[in-house]
Write a structure and sequence with these properties.
CATH architecture of the largest domain: 3-Layer(aba) Sandwich
Distance between the termini: 17 Å
Bound molecules: phosphoric acid mono(formamide)ester
CATH class of the largest domain: Alpha Beta
CATH topology of the largest domain: Rossmann fold
Radius of gyration: 19 Å
Low-confidence stretches: none
Number of strands: 9
Number of helices: 11
Structural class: alpha/beta
Mean pLDDT: 93
Length: 316
């Protein structure tokens, strides 16, 4: 396994399966009265968040604490970043405090890569979402959830049909899922208005389509993407109502899905836009499970990357 987790493309099939299998074992920790393992005792994990987050930030914090690491939570809001401090100086400051791992979310695509390549930290760098580029641990928790419901633990996702719907253009979740799911053998179809598909999507390991009614029928999992209005500086569709009508998942469309098929969303959701409230809260929805699984998957990533680094040092 590579030292850092910057992209889903960093993971071979073997690496991805190792993380998913480890997460399956660690999922049980959350059900224990004392939810802690001593694995990362004495290690420091820094959560470096330059962009807002609920699920990812909290689940990385819970994951690190459940592995007994010391956790430093850094949020750009309220820090010296608001006085103009650079990523480099922020990273060097945190390095001076002895970070063994830096979990970074940044509005700029490529910021985690820069942090890893420039040597501003000696620790492991984990990408917790960079701009419109990637969100590899989200893809891992999505794959974990699909495995639970579709192929079974211990399996890959060979032949599973996954439809990813909506604002692919601005979605780091879509890119990481396309890469990881294809590594795991799934057949991925992106469904979006032509204006919300990125240039070069034909080089992604996926099929594309524009008809959601057709796409939901053959899918084992339908993953709805948030419409990221905060990243849009132009009009990509005529109106919210028109978007929902053509690309929203409502009960009528959900009823066309196969009986075993699941509904996913990385969150946060725009209820009433890309997904209706009754679909989000239905029995088909695994959206809350995705969040639960996020802690186990992030424990597995820290366990294998930071704990693995520790083992290597001890045996060197
Ligand atoms: N899915 C996801 O990244 O959610 P947050 O922005 O709340 O972390």
């Amino acid at each position: 396994m590579k030292k850092h987790l910057l992209s889903a493309a960093d993971l071979s099939r073997r690496d991805a399966i190792a993380i998913l299998d480890t997460a399956a074992e660690l999922l049980g920790v959350a059900k224990r009265p004392i939810k802690k393992l001593p694995t990362l005792r004495g290690r420091t994990v820094v959560n470096l968040f330059f962009e807002d987050s609920t699920r990812t930030r909290i689940s990385f914090e819970a994951a690190a604490k459940r592995l007994s690491a010391d956790v430093i939570n850094f949020s750009a809001k309220g820090s010296s970043v608001s006085k103009g401090e650079s990523l480099k100086d922020t990273a060097l400051t945190l390095q001076a405090m002895g970070a063994d791992a830096v979990v970074i979310r940044h509005h700029a695509s490529g910021a985690p890569q820069r942090l890893a390549d420039a040597g501003w930290t000696d620790g492991v760098v984990v990408n917790a979402g960079d701009g419109t580029h990637e969100h590899p641990t989200q893809a891992l928790l999505d794959a974990f959830t699909m495995r639970q419901h579709l192929s079974g633990l211990g399996q890959d996702l060979a032949g599973q049909r996954v439809t990813i719907v909506g604002d692919v253009l601005h979605s780091r979740v879509a890119r990481s899922n396309a890469l990881l799911l294809s590594t795991l053998g799934a057949d991925v179809t992106l469904v979006a208005p032509p204006t919300l598909l990125p240039v070069g999507v034909e080089q992604w390991p996926v099929a594309t389509g524009y008809d959601l009614d057709e796409a939901v029928e053959g899918a084992d999992a339908v993953m709805m993407l948030r419409v990221q209005r905060e990243r849009m500086n132009a009009s990509f569709f005529p109106s919210a109502r028109e978007y929902s009508r053509r690309y929203g998942l409502n009960t009528a469309r959900m009823n066309r899905m196969a009986e075993h098929a699941i509904v996913m969303h990385p969150g946060p959701m725009n209820r009433g836009m890309e997904i209706t409230a009754d679909v989000a809260d239905s029995d088909r929805s695994v959206i809350v499970e995705q969040v639960t699984n996020g802690v186990a998957v992030r424990m597995a990533v820290l366990y294998l990357l930071v704990g693995g680094a520790q083992d290597n040092e001890e045996t060197a």
